[in-house]
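Protein in question filed below.

…
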Amino acid sequence: MSCPRCGSREIMLAPSGEFVCKKCGHRWPLPQADLTWAELEIKKAKLFEKYIDEPIEECSELLSKLRQELDEKSARLLAGKILIQRAERRKLAPAELEKLYAEVEKCWG
């Protein structure tokens, strides 16, 4: 990193959270990180925990709840993930598994 004013590489970080050039004294702010992706992942994790044990078996019902808080694509992916995790947690008969996986396909389709 170098000073945008003089090009010096002698840079320090001030307690105020700015970069300061030791040569010319120029100050400039730290670049701000975009953390919206992390906020979305945290929201999806919380919704997963909220709905994993809910007695909702149909994709459409689960999607209607998830769409209130997520965009369409994220809601569909999360609904499918929740239904798959339920199938894996339970010891279901093959016919029941087939029915549950059909619901997952509805979510993703």
Observations:
- The chain has four helices and three strands.
- The helical segments are 36-51, 59-66, 72-89, 94-108.
